TrEMBL record:
It comes from the Bacteria. The keyword Disulfide bond does not apply. The keyword Methyltransferase does not apply. One of its GO terms (biological process) is regulation of DNA-templated transcription. This is histidine kinase. Residues 160-383 form the Histidine kinase domain. Keywords: ATP-binding, Kinase, Nucleotide-binding, Phosphoprotein, Transferase, Two-component regulatory system. It catalyses: ATP + protein L-histidine = ADP + protein N-phospho-L-histidine. InterPro entries: HATPase_C_sf (IPR036890), HATPase_dom (IPR003594), His_kinase_dom (IPR005467), HisK_dim/P_sf (IPR036097), PAS (IPR000014), PAS-assoc_C (IPR000700), PAS-like_dom_sf (IPR035965), PAS_fold (IPR013767). It comes from Eiseniibacteriota bacterium.
Amino acid sequence: MNGHACDDDPEFVAELFELLEEGVVLHDSNGRVRACNAAAARMLAWPAFGDQGAHSLFAEIEATLESGEPLTREDEPTRRVLATGVAHEARVRVRRADGETAWLLVKSVPLRRARREGGVRSGALGGALTVLRDMTEHMLVEERVRGQLPADSFSELAGSIAHDFSHFLTVIVGYSDLIAVSLPPTDPVREQAEHIRAAATGAARLTGELVDFARRQRHSANEADVSRTLQEMQPMLARLLGPRIRLSLDLDPSATVVRADPIQLERAIFNLALNARDAMRAGGSLRVVTHAVTIDEEFVRTHPGAQPGAFVRLVVADEGAGMTEETRRRLFEPFFTTKPPGQGTGLGLATVWGIVKQFGGYIDVDSAPGRGAEFRIDLPAVSLGSGEASSVRPAEKG
């Protein structure tokens, strides 16, 4: 197909526009709707062919942000784009006139005018393109995972979602490529098709994380030397943390070999270090300690999920801002993140939880606002050295 095929076949472009499962809305520089596809009209409960000339996508329906706050006209992604010239997105819960409730991911990007002579762009903001994605099923799954689904069952769910999601991504990437190659290089719509492709590619990376998460839960328990693993990882961890964060290791020579997969142990340590780095934007210290412990029945009674016996305790303590009790309770939930949209998947600490539980271990975190966070991981000891293991009781920390 040559780059100008659509010049002679506008019906072809219109057909592609309607085939997209995502809703697509074109706005002029004043925010008025100039065109939309059938998917957008369906999601917004608009009449056939869309509400041409409307100044707001949500004028006729109840819409709230993920925080529960009403979505004001000024907060609409399209309005943000036209005011700032920068792409913006938001998750919006809508209740339509027919009573149906849905979650939409609303992403708007700027459309800039281009001079046809030589293809030089003037940079003037000519409007905005808004893409709507129905997130209802995703949000329902997220709620079920948070409220009902045991985290150790998440690997099966993740693999299933990733498998199905990859098919949708193939369609999105394919059609965006088709649109892009069908338009002249100077056509502003071509750039927007490339934006859609980039977004789909980002989603593909998330799918890869889900697949990786699922696979991590299926490793057999071998033996891993905690001290050796930490010593070998020290240079890499120092680079990961950066110059503003000091890394210190305090390793007990009597607490070394545990029942765990060495690669999975590295993944858990890496994710904990990454979490600590993100918590210490202004710098600080990350302290990593190992020592032998014996968990008794009294500790088990007050700590659901713990098992009695000999363990090697790995402590990872940062000097970050700490967290509230609500955040601490939800910290290991899949998809839960305190980062801004697009900056975190909520799978890092959930992966750590899954790795620890898979090998019969126990994980806990002690934190409060203003005093950092201390993660404690107990892994079953294969053998302990000549040193003595401390007995762990409910009141003990670290």
